[in-house]
Specification:
It is a single chain. The protein is mainly alpha-helical. It contains 14 helices and no strands. α2 runs parallel beside α13 and α4 runs antiparallel to α9. The protein is globular, with a radius of gyration of 19 Å. The chain starts with 7 loop residues before the first helix and ends with a helix.
Length: 317
């Protein structure tokens, strides 16, 4: 794909110095903190709501609200996109929300929220792998970070191998991280809508409809009753819609088009810390040695990757 000065692909590889304004740091802070707390919210929601019903409903509601906000703020014309742009947004939405988020939501019916977040921290590692697979050779330090991080993932899977938690839950999160990474990687290389909020809206609607479809195929609607949803699940569901989807996901979509991908990826080693602390403090999730040690190794590997990528991009600008 040919890139232009303002295309997503060009923005993703541009000099960080162009984008480190107040808006970028504010968006990063939102993604850092709010997304870290969404793992807790997901864990609370799935206590009384089936996983794909909850994620599908969340993203459809959030997507509809987003389209309304866009039409009100920018005018209905802001929602007009070309077919290639719409197709790209839907593809990215499927990868990020049905694939990435959906696998995590399903997995959190069986694994602690903190462990899920630590496994998701591997996203920059997979992005580096996709780069290498498409002919973009990452620096040796980046590949070293990938190796270190993979070692941490091996430690994090020990609770599943030992039977302390369900292994299938760990595997689902790992699959989800690969799909989320592919969506992140692809978003900078596809012809996305120019307005990042419009892109976010179509991604949420596409991912939400797909998630509801999976829910009905799985039969999650059978036996489900709104009356049996707990108050705390409703509160968490509302939090995920407003803050996790409308606020944080939109901030993430904007960052993908407005800041270097290597900088955006730094959320991956902040989110797990927030998630682990909240899981331990609010849900009483145990901080076992595989979680502490494996999590520290994963975060260390991600730090090596992101710091190397940022220096490399700055040096080549």
């Amino acid at each position: 794909m040919r890139t232009t000065k303002d295309s997503p692909a060009a923005l993703a590889t541009a000099s960080p110095a162009r984008h480190l304004g107040g808006a970028v740091w504010a968006a990063l802070l939102i993604v850092y903190v709010v997304w870290g707390s969404t793992y807790l919210g997901i864990r609370v929601v799935v206590e009384t709501v089936p996983p794909f019903l909850s994620s599908g409903g969340r993203f459809i509601i959030a997507g509809l609200l987003m389209t309304g906000l866009i039409a009100w703020r920018f005018g209905p014309g802001a929602l007009r996109v070309t077919w290639p742009q719409l197709r790209s947004a839907l593809v990215v939405g499927l990868l990020l929300l049905l694939g990435g988020n959906g696998m995590v939501v399903l997995a959190e019916t069986a694994v602690p929220s903190g462990l899920a977040a630590l496994l998701v921290a591997a996203v920059p590692m997979w992005v580096a792998v996709f780069r290498a697979a498409t002919g973009d050779r990452p620096p040796v330090r980046t590949l070293t970070g990938v190796g270190v991080g993979m070692g941490g993932l091996a430690v994090l899977t020990l609770p599943g191998l030992s039977g302390e938690i369900k292994l299938w839950g760990v595997v689902l999160v790992l699959i989800g991280t690969v799909l989320w990474s592919l969506g992140t990687f692809s978003s900078a290389r596809l012809p996305m809508p120019k307005n990042p909020f419009t892109a976010s809206a179509y991604e949420m609607l596409g991912g939400g409809v797909a998630s509801l479809t999976v829910a009905f195929v799985r039969g999650e609607q059978h036996g489900f009753s709104f009356a049996e949803v707990s108050t705390r699940s409703w509160v968490a569901f509302g939090y995920l819609i407003v803050f996790g989807s409308l606020v944080a996901f939109s901030a993430y979509a904007w960052l993908l088009q407005s800041a270097p991908l290597s900088l955006v990826s730094t959320y991956a080693y902040v989110n797990p810390v927030v998630a682990v602390l909240l899981g331990a403090l609010i849900l009483g999730e145990a901080l076992t040695w595989p979680i502490v040690v494996g999590g520290a190794i994963v975060v260390a590997g991600v730090v090596v990757i992101v710091s190397t990528e940022r220096r490399g991009r700055a040096g080549s600008s």
